[in-house]
Each structure stands twice: as structure tokens, then as C-alpha cells.
Amino acid sequence: MIDYRSDTITKPTEKMRKAMYEAEVGDDVYGEDPTVKRLEELAAEITGKESAIFVPSGTMGNQLGVKTHTNPGDEIILEENCHIFYYEAGATAALSSVQTRTIRGEGGIMAISDIRKAIRSEDIHFPKTSLICVENTHNKWGGTVMSASHMKNIHELAMGRGIKVHLDGARIFNAAAYLNTDVKNITEHADSVMFCLSKGLCAPVGSMLAGSKDFIHKAKKYRKMFGGGMRQAGIIAAAGIVALTDMRERLQEDHENARNLAEGLSGIKGLEVDLNSVQTNIVMCDIVNKDSDSQKFIAALKEDGILATYITDTRVRFVTHYYIEAKDVKETISKISTYMKKQQ
Ligand SMILES: *Cc1c(COP(=O)(O)O)cnc(C)c1O
To answer: Rounded to the nearest whole angstrom, what is the distance from the C-alpha of residue 199 to the centroid of ligand 1?
Structure first.
């Protein structure tokens, strides 16, 4: 199977499995796991933050960010297709009792003027705007990247109004690879950042939340409250260290494969891909044949040994990752081309 469903399906590499086997561990709730500590120090250093904590999932990292930066009844500003709003089961309401103010942003990028308009003024009727959440790369918009300068503008606006910025950087290293910059040049424009070890970086489990020392100190208590205190977590943190050390620099390969796939698919009659939006490792493909629907397309591809994800009745998503090679992309284009010809 050539599995394009997501980069989350990546299994740990041989080197990760070996590191996991050999990991030195302790009870991390007691602060006694040396491998978790090493991973947290590494994550803080890479993102240019004072401190970081290891969390079981990206969702928990984001929700700890929201919880730690806000008080119940506050309002938070976010893009209407962002993961925190769209895909986290209503956690901002359930866990932090904040209300959400969503803005549509082309490519997932909220305009400064729209954010400025959404920030509440001081008024007895109004909730307090305490947080702006941004997502880079943007998942639902197809892995699109926000520039460091736009992030800087958002952060400056926020700082001027006493508002914090949380970066959902599940795929922040893909953004850094696209922008060809050190990830610190992106993360410096947010008060906190969450990133995933378990996506394109191939670790089996886990995400990191980074920020100031004081912020992480508070978040650690909420992590316990949310049930995310882990014991001998060094077993999985060991894979995270390999992920950060070995897997960041190769993401450009995934981007090249995605680009080649997108170009190949866009050349097939009955399919359309917006090539401008293919910036990292995600390809959104629209089926424009009058009698073709995406579920039928996905089922046919599966018969041919290719897995993709349903997005809408006419849209299918392909995600490239460590286990997709250039030859797989060639094979995919050829098989889809044959299938689409039969549909004419
Ligand atoms: C995957 C993802 C998350 C959440 O990660 P989980 O580990 O699946 O909870 C958060 N934000 C974005 C943008 C993601 O793509």
C-alpha cells in the first residue's frame, strides 16, 4: 500500500526503536525521567524558548496553551478552519470555558485588519480578548505556510493590546523548511508553540509545548489536571529525541514529492490541483468529472494499492512523508491516470 492518508501513519524508524529500547527512564510525574528532561531541553533550545513540556498529543498541547493563557469567559481569536476550533472536539469550551471568535483567512492566514477589528475594547458588556491562535503550516487549508513577517505583525498587534499568541505548529518544521529558515525565526513571534513529534518526524507518540519558564510551570499543573502526567515516558521521549535530531532536515524531500504528485495529478483530465497552495507535504485534489465523486475515487484507488483521505464529496487529500518515495509518486500518477482515462 502507498499510504497518503496522513503523516501521522509514519511508524518509528529502526534508530528510534533502538533508542526506545535503550532509554534511561524514571517517573516523570516526580520529575525523574532523564530522557524526558533531555527531550524537553532540546525542544526549548530548538524553538528558542525558556522551557518546554512533553505531552501525549498535539491536541493536549494546544489545549494546555489555551487553558494557561486564558481565564473562563475570555474570548480567543482564531482562523475558522484551524485545528483548535475545527478538530478538537469543542475542547476550548469544555476545558477552558472560553468563547471563540473565528475569522476566515485565505490560506489560513488571518488579515491583520480583521484581527484588529475582532479584538474587544474595554467595555462592561464585552468579554476580554486574551489570546490569538495561529496555525503554521495550516492543515485544513492544505499545508499552507504563514511568513515570519506576518507572524511578527500579529504578535506586535497582540503585544500592544496585552494579548498572548499561541502557535499551533503541529507541522512547524515543514514551515521552516519551506521558508528555508531556522525555526526560531518563526517561533519567536509567538508566546507559546506546540509542535508534533508524531507526524512527519515519525515518532510514535507525543508533542511538545514550549514557552516561558513561568508559562510552562503553570501548564505542567494543567497537564496533570487533563490526565497527561506520564510515568516512565522516557520510552517514547527517546524516539522524540531522534525525531528532532535526525528527521527535521529531510522534510524538504516530502515537499518535493508532494510537488511532483501535485503537478502529475493536475495534468490528468478530470482532476484539478491548486498548485499555488501546494507548499509543503499536503496535496488537495479536486475531482471535476461530472460523474465522479471522491468516495468512489478513493475506493478505486484502494483497489490499486493507494490510500488517500476524503475531505469533501469532490475533494481528496494526499499527504507525503518519510515512507513515500519518488518512485511511489510516479506509480501513483500512472495508476490514477489510467483510472481516470477509464472514467471518460
Ligand atoms: C495533527 C494536528 C494537531 C493535533 O495533533 P494530535 O496529536 O492528533 O492531537 C493539532 N494541530 C494541527 C494543525 C494538526 O495538524
So the answer is: 9
Task: Indicate the fold that domain 250-343 takes in CATH.
Answer: Aspartate Aminotransferase, domain 1 (3.90.1150)
Instruction: Give 290's pLDDT tier (boundaries 50, 70, 90).
Output: confident
Among candidates 248, 201, 230, 246, which has minimal Cα distance to 37?
230
Q: Which residue owns the Cα nearest ligand 1 atom 10?
A: 58
Condensed to tens digits (0 to 9), the pLDDT of residues 35-82 reads: 999 999 999 999 999 999 999 999 999 999 999 999 999 999 999 999
The atom number, within ligand 1, closest to the CA of 135 reads 13
Q: Exposed/middle/buried for 57, CB within 10 Å: 0-12, 13-18, 19+?
A: middle
CA of 55 to the centre of ligand 1 (A): 12
> Which whole number is the average pLDDT over 131-142?
97
What pLDDT was estimated at residue 343? 84
Q: Where are the domains of the chain?
A: 10-246, 250-343
Residues with CB under 6 A from ligand 1: 57-59, 62, 83, 135, 139, 168, 170, 196, 207
- How much is the average pLDDT of 83-106? 98
- Going by C-alpha positions, the residue among 123, 125, 120 that lies closest to residue 162 is 120
CA of 163 relative to ligand 1 center, distance in Å: 23
Which of 3.40.50.300, 2.60.40.180, 3.30.300.130, 3.40.640.10 would CATH assign to domain 10-246? Answer: 3.40.640.10
